[in-house]
Write a structure and sequence with these properties.
By secondary structure, the chain is mostly helical. Helices cover about 70% and strands about 0% of the residues. The chain has 21 helices and two strands. A hairpin with a 5-residue loop joins strand 1 and strand 2. The protein is elongated.
Length: about 450
């Protein structure tokens, strides 16, 4: 097969351009050898016989760098194989040359951001404790992000932030730079998620990874954030985007009791009294235990929000507060409102179930009537784990805790109630449930 390929390419040489050949020309210094070696290494590459492909590939790479894009695409496979096999730094250096020459000779056929991203990933992968190489990899990844913009893949965002975390721990990146990087990438992931475009789901995983890295880094405690973000605030007191960044990061880290959070929340609300700004104020007043103000601004956030998920979260938080205040009808109301925009919020069903269960003694009627309330409560716990498997463990605990409070068969006998019969639980609960009994 090789002999046939060589003869065919030999015939092809008769129609090659006859102008003077240079390293910069497409076929390099020797067109015959370029064609021959390209044919040979390509056959070996197709068979994944990368070590045999190396000599012929190297000839084309060194002597005809402008020949074709495949020299660089296939060259990555060949050199990556040799790195893994030999562990020699010389091959790592060659891989870096592959990226550099690709940009130099294939600029019109290769996006700079894409190639720099690949180079940065390779530098990080093969840095092997070399801090300078790690920093160079980080710089290339950041440059790739700047050039690719919205096209930057989630994998690159995750990798860049992970490297940044390593660099700040080695004092190669300041804490402020690290926090700014988190805010930048977190916002980027949020926007990509909200776009609904193909592949945007990858950013949900990316966002979770960013949060985990940041919050476990040791640089995200409230005191550290207060010191760094105070400086950022003082330098950008009237910049709404910066104020929003500061508010967002303090809220995510549950640092809403900091004076800075209160200051920023109020300034954002003054400039832009949006749903999110009202929510920020609500959380500030909650940290101060000013429940009246908390309710006021949280209800405003609910009214102004056009984001179904946010609206559900706001309603759920309000339901939780009413549950803690023993205002059980209001707890149910806002939990139901949360379910209107997020029907799969298992925690909302659990809140309703708890409101029923802990209010059973206040239910009108005798002891039997009060016990029927637990049927309605357990119904909600069962529904919670049906719509949201993530709350199954919690729901099962409540089912186990409250099922022993069901009436007995003997108690039900005199009311002509049998297992499986529909029973109305009235009052503000207003549920139709099914009779079942404890042993």
């Amino acid at each position: 097969m090789k002999k046939i390929a060589v003869i065919a390419f030999g015939m092809f040489l008769f129609i090659l351009p006859t102008k003077a050949q240079t390293l910069e020309s497409q076929y390099g210094l020797d067109s015959a050898n370029t064609i021959l070696n390209a044919s040979l290494y390509t056959e070996y590459w197709k068979q994944k016989n990368y070590e045999e492909a190396l000599p012929s590939w190297r000839y084309v790479f060194l002597n005809a760098p402008a020949f074709q894009l495949n020299t660089y695409i296939r060259g990555e496979d060949i050199i990556e194989f040799m790195i893994q096999k030999t562990k020699k730094k010389e091959y790592v250096d060659t891989l870096m040359m592959v990226f550099d020459r690709r940009l130099q000779y294939m600029g019109k056929r290769s996006r700079e951001g894409y190639v720099l991203g690949k180079k940065g990933m390779a530098q990080v992968k093969y840095s092997n404790g070399d801090i300078n190489m790690l920093k160079a990899g980080f710089d290339n990844l950041m440059r790739s992000y700047e050039l690719e913009g919205e096209g930057t893949p989630a994998q690159l965002i995750h990798a860049t932030f992970e490297v940044g975390c390593g660099l700040v721990q080695q004092n190669q990146l300041s804490q402020e730079e690290f926090i700014n990087l988190y805010m930048k990438f977190s916002d980027f992931a949020d926007k990509r998620l909200a776009s609904g475009e193909k592949g945007c789901d990858n950013f949900a995983v990316c966002k979770s990874a960013l949060d985990a890295i940041f919050f476990e880094s040791g640089y995200a405690d409230c005191n550290t954030l207060a010191g760094l973000l105070n400086q950022k605030y003082e330098a950008n007191k009237d910049s709404l985007p910066v104020l929003k960044d500061i508010s967002s990061i303090l809220r995510r880290r549950e640092c809403t009791d900091l004076p800075l959070y209160a200051t920023v929340a109020e300034k954002i609300y003054q400039q832009e009294p949006s749903a999110d700004a009202a929510y920020s104020l609500a959380m500030m007043f909650f940290s101060k235990q000013d429940i009246a103000k908390f309710e006021q601004y949280l209800k405003e956030a609910i009214d102004k929000s056009d984001d179904p998920k946010a609206k559900a979260d706001y309603n759920y938080k309000l339901a939780q507060v009413y549950l803690s205040k023993k205002n059980y009808p209001s707890a149910k109301k806002y939990a139901l409102d949360a379910l209107k925009t997020n029907p799969n919020m298992g925690d909302a069903y659990i809140t309703i179930g708890l409101a029923y269960a802990v209010s059973s003694n206040d239910y009108e009627g005798d002891e039997f009537d009060k016990r029927t309330v637990f049927w309605a409560a357990v119904d909600k716990f069962v529904k919670a784990k049906q719509v949201d498997p993530s709350v199954a463990g919690k729901a099962n605990e409540y089912i186990e805790r409250y099922s022993p409070h069901f009436p007995t068969k003997d108690e039900a006998f005199f009311r002509d109630i049998t297992a499986g019969k529909s029973v109305k639980v009235g009052g503000w609960i207003n549920e139709t449930t099914t009779a079942r009994f404890r042993d």
